[in-house]
TrEMBL record:
The protein's name in its UniProt record: Acetyl-CoA synthetase-like protein
InterPro entries xrefs: ACP-like_sf, AMP-bd_C_sf, AMP-binding_CS, AMP-dep_synth/lig_dom, ANL_N_sf, FAR_NAD-bd, KR_dom, NAD(P)-bd_dom_sf
Alphabetized UniProt keyword annotations: Oxidoreductase, Phosphopantetheine, Phosphoprotein
Xref: Pfam families: adh_short (PF00106), AMP-binding (PF00501), NAD_binding_4 (PF07993), PP-binding (PF00550)
PANTHER family found in the cross-reference section: BETA-ALANINE-ACTIVATING ENZYME (PTHR44845:SF6), CARRIER DOMAIN-CONTAINING PROTEIN (PTHR44845)
């Protein structure tokens, strides 16, 4: 049902609304307010004046006015006079304004006195703030008014922003906005009392509310893009609806993260003009919980194309939000390069047809003909297609997704880069709220530049640190996980905000400042040293204390001149102290009160602080190693075995070792694990950010599975703060819960002095002991071999302790010094009756089975860079102390259960490190030959060949050596730990040998990460991680659907272990890629394909790609499935349909793609996951049972029909399995009644995988037709 009479023009619809609500408020600006009746009179008066200028059908009336009530009156008057309004932006430069007036040839221009000087042509003017007698030009006799149902005549002309070539006047007839507004009212209607603020896309918004009795509130130009002024206006005017670009919203949310408190009346927020990232959508949903968020996609030539409610269309796994369902699906065409429609889910160029199209481009018939082509898909005369230039795809859900721009790729040294992809990964993985990626330079000097706006509220995403030369090695390392090396920006520029176009509000790439060039270096390519404490950092603290914008501050500003007072100076002191990690006294800040003066004050305090600490380091160390008197248990506590603990506190989980400790704690204990995750200002709101950081770390290391968080709690905290930044109550409640603490967190930096690392490493350990002493919790402290000096050939025994007087001279780095102090605190706590154990690790290397590596490992970097150079450093006495991380983690967890061990300190480093010459000899056999070269010559060669490598060529390893090349003494003088006293307590945890087998695993992983250009030569190892399976499944090609988790992931793992080449298929590509990394070491080829089994085209593509990449498919294991507990009476139709789509149609799609090929080859094995519910119906699972009966019937039929062809068909019928399926259900009644666990031990996914391997491994004449596998205590 239409909301408007779509047979009438805009003027007639407005007049009709005037009659319906004459006394309602129609229009407000900062000076005036008009009711509908008053507005009507103003419009009528001005329209009569326009008529005297010959305004009639298709005559243009120029409007050169600020965004105000006068602007709205002028537009309505032009329409009522029978003409159309021509948009003349105040932001136009003089030449462009003159061009637009000449091109549009308006009969008259409506303006204000202040703007008259901008108009150089002799066009007649109506100056609204002057008496009518001062209007210039010559009046003519009015022409007859056009009919109010003549919707083909012009309504307005607006000019494109002119980003390419000459701006084009887009001519829109009345029909387009009338139908457009009617469609939008179907999405979100308006009524009297609604108050709509019009700012960005002003001319598009000002007329719509006036057709439904709502109030238009014009937002002045100076407030439209000022987040503070805009929010103030929206709050003061009690706005119920407005529109923003995503860029503007991101800026607003950075300043007002809890904006709902300021805008309680805001019921609707439209987003338009740019794509909406999922990250921005999440922040908006959190910030505006009561506001409807509508993502709208449109073009000036087409008006609205699609629109959707962000809460309903957001896909947490995607980078960008879809733009919603098409408002008129029949008018949407997505075509490939040959002009043919693409399949659902496939990207192509978007074309739009229908009555909302613009008439064309003013005075540009050839351009119009290229953009608006005949619609060959429609037989109606005059039907046209508009070419949007946007790449899009229609998802199976019916939602439209914009994927980029045609021709938007950057060509860079032979590569094609899509900026939107790079921008999305930057926002997703770094603490960046908004960014733009462009190319800078020419030829071989052409580089990608990332312009970023930091997101100060980003939880769990690393900040972007940019050095003086404009590089960001840390950002490069982060992005290397998800982007190819040529897609990673070489240069970085931080801006307070991205420049936006004055008219459209979109990001204006032309106004981005140039990046830093060689002029910013000292001539030899090295960056000029920069003090880590910058004016920008101090200014940020000023802005927070003064509640102003950092961009408004200058170095000469005085704190008190800007409204500062004694209380705000105290606040500034606190903020500076927290930010820089040392006390900044108020008295020192009061001495000089300019911004530049405060910068120098902070630097001076820093230098004095560090110098004071380092000057008398023994005294400082002795004082820091003294444990507070109140840190002691009330009575001597009994050590708690970690496998008996109910709750374990783990620190350092976002680090390398910490991730594996979490994995092994979950595998080997039944405890609830509380993970302390660092945040500067910890709050409960940071918990989702903590989950994200843990998940990202575990995914990178191949450890993530969906069940991880079932036994994990996130504790946002800060080790440098008293009580981790928790309240006294929260700290005490935590202490009461925890029985064991595994303290693995530390800030590792071999360059920083003791003073810089003191807070987290020493203070953090002190707070851990404070927590443990309250309830007598056992502390398992992870230390390092760095607490001891170089040992020579013979290693240090476990009882070796260094005297405090020797620390400054024998432990030369601040990291080792802080760890020494922390050890002293732990040992002192032990003497006071607190159960403590110390685990000294050596140099921790990659995982012995998967190769998962610590990206910052110096030894790995030296090996990789040696391979790339073809030369290895020859350093007499240089040994490779490499201890695989899985050994360290397993050993700590195992030793934490050895409560009978009386010794306190355990050694986990390698007691007999291998000579690096043996390492490079083994690498030579693996296909990585190197020649020996003296250290100084090697460094010189590296500086010549590798130090200036750009892009990702070398990636992490180059950046590591750039950040600090070691010395010969550093390489030679390693710390060896003898483990004679430790070995008897960890006999069941075997240390992997550093041999060719381990090095093959490592190099294979380095190749997979892009650090090496080729994989190692495969070794036929007798043991170790390179061993290849040679069983009956070796070399077979298997496709596993539903492989991202649960049974599917377990089956894929089992098949890879058996030597299969495996294609992993599921919707969650991130999880697939993580599993792919884990399985890469088993020898077979592993590929990951994003696949929704309900989409036949995607399934067909999966099997086509698998055949192309791996060979013909021998085995299909169909694991994709859903299960919902539903009561039939509750009619959960969405879940019923989803069950049928996935469980039934998904299987049929897979069978249709595999069976014909297998039959033609006379061999193949189909395995499908059914259920014991496919043999017996369970209450609460009626539709699920029906879907599994369908599976059984389908497989039985296939088995009977293909007997004798060589095809084998197996149905696997699991009972209760520990997977995530139960969490899908939303029917609370069904879950409570039928979904409660019985208490029986359920099956693991691996149990199902083992049964499938059994069926697959039978001789060819044996067919295992059905496998019923259930928990022993839950038979059907």
């Amino acid at each position: 049902m239409p909301f408007l009479d779509t047979s009438k023009d805009l003027s007639a619809l407005f007049s009709r609304q005037v009659k319906a609500t004459p006394n309602a408020v129609a229009l407000e600006d900062d000076k005036t307010t008009f009711t509908y009746a008053e507005l009507d009179r103003e419009v009528d008066c001005l329209s009569r004046r326009l008529r005297t200028y010959g305004v009639s059908r298709d005559t243009l009336v120029g409007v050169l006015l600020p965004r105000s009530a006068d602007y709205v009156i002028a537009c309505l008057a032009a329409l009522r006079a029978g003409g159309a309004f021509l948009v003349l932006e105040l932001a136009y430069p003089p030449e462009l304004l003159a061009d637009v007036i000449e091109d549009g040839n308006p009969a008259v221009v409506i303006t204000h006195r202040a703007e008259v000087g901008k108009i150089k042509s002799k066009v007649p003017l109506i100056v609204l703030d002057e008496p009518a007698a001062h209007a210039n030009g010559h009046a003519t006799e009015p022409a007859p008014l056009p009919a109010d149902d003549d919707l083909d005549r012009l309504a307005f002309v607006s000019y494109s922003s002119g980003t390419t070539g000459k701006p084009k006047g887009i001519a829109n007839p009345h029909r387009a906005p009338v139908l457009s507004y009617d469609l939008r009212f179907g999405v979100q209607d308006l009524q009297p009392g609604d108050r709509v603020a019009c700012n960005v896309f002003f001319i598009w918004e000002i007329l719509r509310p006036l057709l439904r009795g709502a109030t238009v509130v014009t937002v002045p130009d100076d407030a439209s893009y000022d987040p503070a002024a805009l929010v103030d206006l929206l709050a003061a005017r009690k706005i119920t609806e407005t529109l923003m670009t995503p860029t503007l919203l991101a800026t607003v949310l950075q300043r007002h993260p809890h904006i709902d408190e300021r805008l309680p009346e805001l019921r609707t927020l439209w987003l338009n003009g740019e794509v909406v990232t999922t990250d921005l959508a999440r922040r908006a949903i959190k910030a505006l919980p009561q506001t409807r968020l509508l993502n709208c996609y449109s073009a000036c030539e087409t008006h609205e194309i699609a629109c959707g409610d962000i809460r309903k269309i957001i896909d947490e796994e995607a980078t960008y939000c879809p733009v919603g369902p098409p408002l008129d699906p029949k008018q949407i065409y997505i075509l490939d390069e040959s002009g043919q429609p693409v399949d659902t889910g496939v990207s192509g160029e978007l074309f739009v047809a229908g009555p909302l199209l613009a008439r064309g481009y003013l005075n540009l018939p050839e351009t119009t003909a290229k953009a608006f082509t005949p619609n060959r898909f429609d037989t109606q005369p005059g039907s046209r297609l508009y070419r949007t230039g946007d790449l899009a795809r229609l998802l199976p859900s019916g939602l439209l997704e914009i994927t980029g721009r045609v021709g938007s790729m950057i060509k860079l040294r032979g590569y094609s880069v899509v900026p939107a992809k790079v921008e999305s990964e930057i926002v997703k993985n770094l603490a960046v709220g908004h960014c733009a990626v462009v190319a800078h330079g020419d030829g071989l000097e052409r580089q990608l530049v990332a312009y970023i706006v930091p997101d100060r509220n980003a939880a769990g995403r690393p900040t972007v640190e940019i050095n003086e030369a404009g590089y960001s090695p840390a950002a490069r390392r982060t992005l290397a996980q998800s982007l190819a090396h040529y897609m990673i920006p070489a240069l970085w520029v931080e801006l307070p905000e991205l420049p936006t176009h004055d008219v459209t509000g979109k990001v204006d790439l032309k106004r981005l400042p140039p990046p830093k060039t060689d002029a910013h270096t000292n001539g030899n390519g090295k960056a000029v040293d920069q003090d880590p404490i910058t004016l920008d950092q101090v200014a940020a603290c000023w802005a927070a204390a003064l509640k102003t914008s950092k961009t408004l501050l200058t170095p000469t500003d005085d704190f008190f001149d800007l409204g500062g007072h004694s209380l705000s100076l105290a606040d500034l002191s606190s903020r500076l102290s927290r930010h820089f990690g040392f006390r900044v006294p108020i008295a020192r800040l009061a001495e000089t009160t300019t911004l530049a003066g405060h910068l120098e004050t902070v630097r001076a305090i820093r230098d004095g602080h560090t110098a004071a600490v380092q000057a008398d380091l023994p005294a400082v160390l002795r004082a820091d190693a003294t444990l507070d008197d109140d840190i002691r248990p009330a009575q001597p506590a009994t050590i708690c075995s970690i496998d008996k603990a109910n709750t374990v506190l783990l620190t350092g989980v976002t680090g390398f070792l910490g991730a594996f400790l979490l994995h092994d704690l979950l595998e080997n204990t039944s405890a609830q694990i509380i993970c302390l995750v660092r945040f500067n200002e910890p709050a409960n709101d940071d918990q989702p950010g903590g989950v994200a950081r843990i998940r990202r770390n575990l995914l990178d290391l191949g450890l993530w599975r969906d069940s991880v968080m079932e036994r994990v709690e996130i504790l946002p905290g800060n080790l440098s703060r008293t009580r981790f930044g928790l309240s006294t109550k929260a700290f005490d409640e935590l202490a009461a819960r925890v029985q064991v603490i595994v303290h693995a967190a530390a800030t590792v930096n071999l360059v920083y002095p003791y003073a810089a690392l003191r807070g987290p490493n020493v203070g953090g350990t002190r707070e851990i002991l404070r927590l443990a002493s309250k309830s007598g919790a056992t502390v398992q402290y992870v230390s390092t071999n760095g607490v001891l000096p170089a040992s020579g050939e013979k290693g240090w025994p476990e009882d070796t302790l260094l005297d405090v007087e020797d620390v400054p001279t024998k432990l030369l780095d601040g990291y080792g010094q802080t760890k020494w102090v922390a050890e002293q605190l732990v040992l002192e706590a032990g003497r006071r009756g607190l159960p403590v154990k110390v685990h000294r690790a050596g140099t921790i290397s990659g995982h012995s089975a998967t190769g998962a590596a610590n990206a910052w490992d110096l030894l790995s970097a030296l090996i990789v860079e040696s391979i790339k150079l073809g030369y290895a450093p020859e350093v007499q006495g240089w040994r490779a102390e490499m201890t695989p991380v899985d050994f360290v983690s397993k050993a700590i967890v195992h030793l934490a259960a050895q409560t009978h061990a009386e010794q306190t300190i355990f050694h986990l480093g390698d007691p007999k490190p291998v000579d690096t010459r043996d390492v490079f000899a083994a690498l030579n056999e693996l296909g990585y030959p190197t020649k020996p070269l003296g250290w100084d010559e090697w460094v010189t060669l590296w500086n010549e060949k590798r130090s200036n490598v750009k892009g990702g060529d070398g990636g992490f390893t180059v950046d590591i050596l750039r950040s600090g090349m070691p010395t010969v003494e550093f390489l030679r003088d390693i710390v060896v730990l003898d483990n004679a006293a430790t070995r008897p307590f960890r006999t069941c945890v075997e240390r992997p040998k550093v041999d060719k087998t381990l090095l093959e695993t490592y190099t294979r992983h380095w190749f997979a990460r892009g650090w090496l250009s080729k994989p190692p030569v495969r070794q036929q190892a007798l043991n170790g991680t390179a061993k290849l399976a040679k069983g009956p499944l070796s070399g077979r090609v298997a496709v596993v659907t539903g492989a991202s988790s649960g049974i599917g992931a377990a089956v894929a793992t089992a098949l890879a272990r058996e030597g299969c080449h495996v294609a992993l298929a599921a919707r969650r590509v991130e999880a697939l890629e993580s599993l792919q990394k884990q399985l890469a070491t088993h020898g077979g080829k592993i590929i990951a394909k994003k696949t929704d089994v309900t989409n036949k085209a995607q399934v067909d593509a999966l099997f086509h790609d698998t055949t192309q990449e791996l060979g013909p498919v021998d085995i299909l294991v169909s694991c994709a499935g859903v299960m919902y507990f539903t009561m039939m009476a509750n009619v959960q139709t969405d879940e019923w349909e989803r069950t049928v789509d996935v469980n039934c149609k998904g299987l049929l799609h897979c069978l249709s793609a595999t069976v014909p090929g297998m039959l033609s080859r006379g061999a193949g094995h189909i395995v499908a996951i059914s259920s014991d519910a496919g043999r017996k119906v369970f209450p609460g699972l009626g539709v699920y049972s029906a879907s599994k009966f369908f599976v059984e019937a389908t497989l039985q039929s296939l088995r009977l029909e293909t007997a004798g062809t060589g095809l084998r068909v197996t149905s696997v019928q699991p009972g209760n399995v520990a997977t995530d399926l139960l969490g899908m259900s939303t029917d609370a009644e069904a879950l409570k009644k039928y979904g409660e666990p019985s208490g029986a031990e359920v099956l693991a996914p691996e149990d199902i995988a083992n049964s499938i391997v059994y069926a697959l491994c039978q001789p060819a004449h044996v067919s295992v037709n059905e496998v019923l596998i259930e928990p022993r205590d839950e038979p059907i």
